[in-house]
Amino acid sequence: MFRYANPAVFMRLSGVLLPWVSGAALIALAVGLYLGFHVPPDYQQGMTVTIMFVHVPAAIVAESAYGLIAIASLFSLVWRHPLADTAARAAAPLGAVFTALGLVTGSLWGRPMWGAYWVWDARLTSFLLLLFLYLGYIALWNAIEDEARAARAAAILALVGAINLPIIKFSVDWWNTLHQGESILSGQIASVFLWPLLIMALGYMLLFAALWMIRIRTEIVTRRARNLMQRAA
Amino acid sequence: MTAFLAMGGYGVFIWPAYGVSALALIAMVWQSWAAWRAAKKRLEDLERDRT
């Protein structure tokens, strides 16, 4: 694994993968959208169920991205891996946007179904905390000028904040939430809704993967340029 | 067409949800790609100047 995380190897590998991953993301999103608008109305939620196809994938990517940042942070702290900080930092703005999307689409679903754009229920509150963790993480990176120290502080924050991930996941079981419980893994969701949801989720994940790769590449190239400048000076 | 846009009376919630999602995804793609192009061009310029 460490072999693939060498910057030069990463540049070569991601350069080959990127067009394929981007293409697959586009296809999955197009198919998911098509299927998503051809579902019958849900017997309880009517057509608002279509909001699920943009809400749930955004939330899944938001949480997974944070998990990836936490793993990369662990690699950075324990094994001092050179690409780990870059990878963690590059994922953060993407994760923050997906989190915001999860919140906005969720509130547009909550208004017609619950009668409120926002309620302080455990799932919504812990998910809002995720957004603040992302923003804090990004702010910390920008606040500390010395890059090695910034990386260390940000990695510690990311790992501490990872406690929030199981809280988000199990909030619907541990507390009496207005937000509905898990229905995908437990097989309670009808297959007419499951397929568009899975394909949209795949599209969102592939898109995240493509953007993450581009952003790591950008960071590597920026570093090379900075090294050249320093050598020239 | 009007029936499709109305989405059983929920179009006013559904379309903004899709609109904001599309905007955010496109903005991320655009920003990430623009930053990559700029960084690559800068490195190429520096390498050209050196030789």
Give the secondary structure arrangement, pairings included:
The complex is a heterodimer of chains A (233) and B (51).
Chain A (H helix, E strand, L loop, with lengths): L6 H30 L15 H28 L2 H33 L7 H22 L3 H15 L2 H11 L16 H42 L1
Chain B lengths: L1 H5 L4 H40 L1
What does this structure look like?
The complex is a heterodimer of chains A (233) and B (51). Chain A has one domain. Chain A has seven helices and no strands. Chain A has helices spanning 7-36, 52-79, 82-114, 122-143, 147-161, 164-174, 191-232. The longest helix of chain A is centred in the last third of the chain and has 42 residues, at 191-232. The mean pLDDT of chain A is 94. Chain B is built from two helices and no strands. Chain B is mostly helical and 51 residues long. Classes of the chains: A mainly alpha (233), B mainly alpha (51). Chains A and B meet through helix 2, helix 3 and helix 7 of A and helix 2 of B.
Short recap of the structure:
With 233 residues, chain A is mostly helical.
Give a quick set of tags describing it.
heterodimer; A: about 230 residues; about 80% helix; B: about 50 residues; mainly alpha; 2 helices; about 0% strand
Radius of gyration of chain A: 20 Å
**Mean pLDDT metric of chain A:** 94
Largest sheet of chain B: none
Helical content of chain A (DSSP H or I, runs of 4+): over 70%
